[in-house]
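User: I'm putting together a small comparison set for a docking exercise, and I want a reference complex before I start. The sequence is below, and the ligand is calcium ion. Could you produce the 3D structure with the ligand included, as structure tokens?
Assistant: Of course. I'll restate your input first, then give the structure tokens for the complex.
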Amino acid sequence: MSRLSQIMVPFLALALAACDGTDRDAAAPASAAARAPDASAPAAAQRPADALDVETIATGLQHPWGVAFLPEGGYLVTERVGNLRRVGADGSVSAPIAGVPAVVAEGQGGLLDVALAPDFAQSRLVYLSYSEPGDGKLAGTAVARGRLEADRLADVEVIFRQQPKLDTRHHFGSRLVFTPDGYLFITMGDRGVRPTAQDLSSHMGTVARVRPDGSVPEDNPFVGREGAQPETWSYGHRNQQGAALNPWTGQLWTHEHGPRGGDEVNIPQAGRNYGWPIVTHGINYSGQPIPEAVGREQDGMEPPHHVWEVSPGVSGMAFYDDPRHPRWQRSLFVGALAQRQLIRLSLDGDRVVGEERLLGELQARIRDVRVGPDGALYLLTDDINGSLLRVAPTEG
Ligand SMILES: [Ca+2]
């Protein structure tokens, strides 16, 4: 219990700042740039018994957003400002890779997620999600793919465009998840225009499911429904910046930012409505209710699988099933931007049965979390001088 209380003290202090950081998650406070990823002396004294080794693989990354592991070693990292960089196993950071599509790097927009094609070893195809510019001030989430050559992406093509484009700079999502049966899930947000999340004629607030070339699977739930977007898999989501396949069930899990309160984990099922903005555990930043909200539940709308009443500001998601660290087995890791922690949810089947807060001493906005091929966790910190970190339990 003493360890829990030691963790809770800084947690409570941070929670007060959470509501302000969740929605404006792309804008790190100016003071964050001065924070080094080193534990201060007092924080180190609070280090829990199950200590973690944190190694900085690379730093100097501008608001890094997504990371992928190259089979030949090293990493691909997106920077929200619009760069894709190769980070060597030795931590060297390449010049920006050429051929990346132009992005709208404003507000929460920019270059977002990166994923390797399942057949990357042969195809060398890299998938990127990003805020694509449109006419005038319009922008929308899009997904492009290109073949990775030494220092460029070749044969780049856009395989998905969120419809319609809007002139806001909020809630672009987005994460990319491939499935073993050959589909690609794309998570998106409502673009800050709440009612769009309930409008099936738009891709706002949806999870989309496409083939790797962007074509629509015939068994998608809204194929053939007049006025609906055929790529839509589930809808009524607010802003989804975390997604992963559950390795034990094969199902997609996502999370999304609530407004002020009400960050959610969902297990999106085909054709289901996840409720935003009609049902939510959160309220507006002003302290007023969400105008469209009727409460926390409504027939025909799926309740969250897990909900945080105080918003951590969730980003990045990874299930842990590597045998090398048994204490982490059956965990779901989630990054926290506003609360500046790594969250570990313990699972029993699909049920969330525990929650542990880690790495608060870093005071870092955690944008992405992945399990690497070596069984360690890899994190990206959201900062103008952001880092790629490797985290593993201390040996012995
Ligand atoms: Ca919901």
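DSSP finds three helices and 23 strands in the chain. Confidence is low (pLDDT under 50) at residues 1-49.
User: Thanks, that's exactly what I needed.
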